[in-house]
Design goal:
The protein is α+β, with helices and mostly antiparallel strands. Helix content is 20%, strand content 37%.
């Protein structure tokens, strides 16, 4: 009995906390979003090509311990953890709507920033009416951080 339970839990653990970017993008559909950024230690900011994300207080020290100032890294976030926002904010990226896919009980929305295509999984059965320009909230508290080499760091 115990072995069967463990076999069901391990894939979920791999999904939630993949050890590297290969597994992060291999497990899950759509795969984990990976955004290239550079860590700026003084402000605890993740500088992306398309903007910046300010790390919340509870993650700042952990990021400072894990990464050197100026180090390049990957910010990984699952599509179901992302949300659409009303406008600019400390963890919001501007994007253009690329595709909207109603799938019954959920809707997949794909957006394009200047450098990245990002997938959102919204728990809505009716596709939202979206403007061409949208804001995506990146939940830094739910994000994983990978070294430039691809291995999980935080």
């Amino acid at each position: 009995m115990d072995r069967g339970w463990r076999l069901r839990v391990i894939p979920l653990e791999i999904y939630r906390r993949p050890r590297n970017t290969f597994v992060a993008t291999f497990i899950g559909s759509p795969p984990m979003n990976l955004l290239r950024c550079r860590f700026r230690s003084a402000e605890a900011v993740l500088a992306l090509e398309d903007g910046q994300i300010i790390a919340p207080g509870e993650r700042r020290e952990a990021l400072r311990r894990a990464f050197r100032d100026g180090e390049r890294l990957w910010l990984g976030v699952r599509p179901e953890h992302l949300a659409l926002a009303e406008g600019p904010g400390p963890a919001h990226l501007a994007a253009r709507v690329y595709a909207v896919e109603p799938l019954g009980v959920e809707t997949l929305v794909t957006v394009q920033t200047d450098t990245d295509r990002i997938s959102l999984r919204l728990s809505v059965d009716e596709p939202p009416v979206l403007r061409e320009q949208v804001w995506v909230r990146i939940p830094v508290e739910r994000a994983l951080f990978f070294r430039e080499s691809g291995e999980l760091a935080l």
